[in-house]
Amino acid sequence: MAAASPPFSRTKDSQCCAGGYSYLFSSVLAGLLNPSDGTMHVNRPRSFVFQNPDHQVVMPTVEADVAFGLGKFSLTLNEVRSRVSKALDAVGMLEYSQRPIQTLSGGQKQRVAIAGALAEACKVLLLDELTTFLDENDQIGVIKAVKNSVAGPGEVAALWVTHRLEELKYADGASYMEDGRIVMQGDISSVSKFLKEKQTWYN
After folding, report:
1. What pLDDT, on the 0 to 100 scale, is given for residue 4?
2. Percentage helix, strand, coil, to 5, in the chain?
3. Which of 35, 83, 118, 191 could pair with 174 as two cysteines, CB 3.0-4.6 Å apart?
């Protein structure tokens, strides 16, 4: 779940303020918050998917919710329908297009939120602790949806923010943060080794 070329770059070292570092980090990348120091350049359109899907999925049906964000574009009705269908298909929710939102599980709502981001033709998915409120089956469904969404080479990249080390195996690369700073970055093997050694230090 990593971009072929870096979608974000920093011109100056920056540090998040005290609090929920992971949320602050992803919120700054999404443009929801401004960094207190440094400069960030974004060269790809990106969309932010919240930890709690109920904060993002607001329309009465699946199809209507995915189409909701497309109102800001000058699209024909056929173009909207095409984007919605492709996005729902990418996350395995096409057959649920007419379902009322309140009948969905938490994981299904997360997949609808991801579909909404994909429908807007984003190139970077910013995913904040997506599996926090989900049971095991829904966790797997969301992970599969994200993997499928980034399957095409150079199409969409995903930046997955998580505290769950067991999700590391699904990524192409990883960065580990402490106190708002990246202290380790590399491929999965290198980051996993670093974290195992770190656990040994604390034991």
Report:
1. 33
2. 45, 15, 40
3. 191
